Amino acid sequence: MMKKLILPALLMTILGATEVQANTTKAGTFALCSTQGKVAVRPDDLPEAVKNTLSGDAYAGWQVTSAFLVTKEDNSQYFEVNAKKGEESTVINLDKYGKKVD
After folding, report:
1. CA distance 63 to 81
2. Which of 3, 32, 65, 88 has fewest C-beta within 10 Å?
3. How confident is the model at residue 74, as a pLDDT?
4. Which helix (H) or strand (E) holds 4?
5. Is residue 28 located within the same domain as residue 65?
């Protein structure tokens, strides 16, 4: 009788631990995916069209401080450029052709 009770109890323990493990993995995978949407890019490595837009009259006097390649949920991408002019700072979003993105 005791053997009949131990085996099911052991199986329930193993299955319970497996379920907790699976949930942890799913949560970890989700967190990993959500942090991969923004990747740092060196300002020198920005596409020529983006650099040309930033060096134009519209952004005269602005200095690029950092840049990121952002991938949205629909897999479209744009560059998020942080720039500074004196004490003022701004974020400029441009596609790979140098066109402004909202």
Report:
1. 10
2. 3
3. 93
4. helix 2-35
5. no
* C-beta of residue 64 within 8 angstroms of C-beta of residue 83: yes
Flag whether pLDDT at 81 surpasses 50: yes
DSSP 100: B
Same domain for 65 and 29:
no
Q: Are 62 and 90 in contact (CB under 8 A)?
A: yes
- Measure the CA–CA gap between 69 and 93, rounded to whole angstroms: 10
Range of the domain at 84: 37-102
Contact, 94 vs 101, CB < 8 A?
Answer: yes
Are 12 and 50 contained in the same domain?
no
Average of per-residue pLDDT values in the chain: 79
8 Å CB contact between 69 and 41: yes
Q: How many domains does the chain have?
A: 2
Strand partners, 86: none
